[in-house]
Write a structure and sequence with these properties.
Blueprint lengths: L4 H8 L3 H5 L17 H17 L7 H15 L10 E5 L6 E4 L3 E5 H6 L3 H16 L2 H8 L2 H19 L5 H14 L4 H18 L5 H17 L5 H5 L4 H12 L10 H11 L5 H14 L5 H14 L3 H13 L5 H13 L3 H14 L4 H13 L3 H14 L4 H13 L3 H14 L3 H13 L5 H30 L1
Parallel strand pairs: 1-3
Antiparallel strand pairs: 2-3
The chain binds zinc ion.
Length: 484
């Protein structure tokens, strides 16, 4: 299969809401239009993301998401071409897949993270996806579609959705008939793949990863594909992979000097944490027990870390703490170990120790966002809401586009009984995620809360006017598009 639309469809798989709201899609122009404008592309991506964030498959784990995001941003900083502000996210799905959505949003399945045997392999897939974005492949493709074609495409996505909720139906079969017509329009997708491979490889090299990771991982996926025929890993459906592409990669890699790149500590820990979420808690514990007994692993600390997480899931706190002690003896140093320690202390209802652990950890790892979130939560839970508020204010100065921080600040204000400020902060959280209407609703609530002074109220009013104006402009733009 050779179609970039699979990239988008892979995203649409998760979001029935987008289909219903097809009306709100940006103007995609007529077929002679060269490409979707960056603004329209971003808006389309934002709409899709709003649905994805609501989907239960969206992985709301700041440690895993933060890791993937740092890896992606590091690669993207070496990218050529147009560079939107990238956003990386993780989907809980065992299918091997990664996909780029319009506007710089890149999703990775947990299945793909777990299938990567080296960090350079995961980096290779991300670099390939980033290249699709920097080369505006999606925008160019969308630009070729008329509004009618896009509608056909979306209705096809409904079929895929149905197939997904019914695992007895092979997704590939549901697709093949309807997909055929649309695929013919996408005749340059093979060139796109080649371009993404070539630029991805450069990016991988410049970011300091092992370029062989690209060939080894793609080759393994191809083997998977041959084994399973119609049930090929999702990635093969979204990115047609041929032996020709792989030999192209191998040729390019052969021209580069050999470089051995050790995996980061975080890579192993994140994979172990994901593994610990597989199956029932009991099954996860049994799985790690077997691994430890077999002695077949590259890093003992990874297995013990996953084991401790599985034990935590299984409510075996004392045993999990023994593993944490073992990890400290193994000299493991990571923010992930500190947050695990704090989670176990909280499970014991020892919030004083948890606060102490997290405060020290934030000092030691100031860039680990997940620790900051955990500390704020622990402060709110431990009756230190004022300290939590100070921390959210400080952190928001560094990261004003962090919606989780805004939401935590709202939670902190709620704990302090400040209703106007609670709704004002929640409005900002929604706004960062592109949710304009819910943001306006929160500001209306803030106005009605009668615990604000004149100054705070006039601030809310000003913000409300600004957002209503923005909403009006959006409505006007949508109307113009419908008339088009
Ligand atoms: Zn591709």
């Amino acid at each position: 299969m050779k179609s970039f639309l699979w990239l988008i469809l892979a995203g649409f798989l998760l979001l029935p809401g987008v289909l219903v709201r097809a009306d709100g899609l940006p103007d995609l122009g007529e077929s002679d239009r060269a490409a979707l404008s960056p603004q329209a592309e971003r808006r389309l991506g934002e709409q899709i993301m709003q649905e994805i964030r609501r989907d239960p498959a969206y992985l709301d784990d700041p440690e895993v998401a933060g890791y993937v995001s740092r890896l992606g941003q590091r690669l993207a900083s070496h990218a050529e071409g147009t560079r939107p502000s990238f956003e990386f996210f993780v989907i809980k799905d065992s299918m091997l897949n990664a996909f780029a959505l319009p506007g710089g949003y890149i999703g990775v399945h947990t299945g793909l993270i777990l299938a990567a045997r080296a960090e350079s392999e995961l980096a290779a897939v991300l670099a390939h996806e980033i290249s699709h974005v920097t080369q505006s492949h999606l925008a160019r493709l969308f630009g070729k579609q008329s509004q009618a074609q896009l509608a056909a495409l979306l209705s096809m996505a409904v079929a895929i959705l149905a197939a997904r909720s019914n695992p007895d139906v092979a997704i590939g079969a549901a697709l093949s008939g309807q997909a055929a017509g649309i695929q013919q329009q996408l005749n340059f997708s093979r060139d796109f793949e080649r371009e993404a491979d070539r630029l991805g490889l450069n990016m991988l090299d410049q970011a300091g990863y092992d370029t062989r990771g690209m060939a080894t991982f793609f080759e393994r996926m191809l083997q998977f594909g041959r084994l399973y025929e119609n049930n090929a890993p999702g990635y093969l459906r979204t990115h047609p992979l041929t032996t020709e592409r792989i030999s192209d990669m191998e040729n390019r890699i052969a021209q580069r000097p050999y470089r051995q790149v050790p995996d980061s500590v975080e890579f192993g820990l994140v994979r172990a944490k994901l593994q610990a979420q597989n199956g029932t808690p009991g099954e996860a514990v049994a799985d790690f027990t077997t691994q430890l007994k077999s002695g077949k692993y590259s890093r003992e600390s990874d297995v013990r870390f996953g084991y401790a997480h599985a034990l935590l899931r299984d409510n075996k706190v004392a045993e999990a703490e023994r593993e944490v002690a073992a990890l400290r003896r193994l000299k493991l140093e990571s923010p992930l170990l500190e947050s695990l320690t704090a989670q176990l202390q909280l499970k014991r209802r020892d919030s004083a120790s948890a606060l102490q652990t997290l405060r020290a950890a934030v000092q030691r790892y100031p860039h680990a966002r997940a620790l900051v979130y955990a500390l704020i939560e622990a402060q709110i839970g431990g009756g230190e809401a004022s300290a939590a508020l100070a921390l959210t204010q400080k952190e928001l100065q560094l990261a004003p586009r962090d919606s989780r921080l805004h939401a935590l600040q709202a939670k902190t204000f709620a704990a302090l009984g400040k209703r106007l400020q609670q709704h004002r902060a929640q409005a900002e959280a929604y706004l960062v995620d592109g949710l304009l209407i819910p943001a306006i609703e929160q500001l209306e609530l803030a106005r009605k809360a009668d615990d604000g002074d004149f100054y705070a109220l006039s601030q809310v009013d000003a913000r409300l006017r600004e957002l209503k104006q923005r909403r009006l402009e959006e409505l006007r733009r949508d109307r113009r598009q419908r008339e088009f």
